[in-house]
Amino acid sequence: MKLTVLSGKVVINALSKIGYCVRDQKGCHVHLRHPYRKLLTVPDHREIAKGTLRKKALLPF
Fold first, then answer.
1. Residue 57 class from Cβ within 10 Å (0-12 exposed, 13-18 middle, 19+ buried)?
2. Domains assigned to the chain
């Protein structure tokens, strides 16, 4: 599967649709929480590196 280049805001919006909520933000890193999944940190950049997206997609739930 080929990953497309996404911005931090797009990733945060997608994660919020599956139950993640913004907990806080330090600089350009947004911390997201979920009731029963791990805490995620997403960089709020114009473009997120493909390796970062791959790592976030493969996290165990």
1. exposed
2. 8-57 (3.30.920.30)
Q: What's the pLDDT tens digit per position in 2-35?
A: 767 888 899 899 899 989 999 999 999 999 999 9
Cβ atoms 41, 25 nearer than 8 A: no
pTM summary value:
0.79
**For residues 39 and 32, is the Cβ–Cβ distance under 8 A?**
yes
Mean pLDDT over 48-60 rounds to 70
User: Are the beta carbons of 26 and 42 closer than 8 angstroms?
Assistant: no
Residue range 37-49: average pLDDT?
A: 88
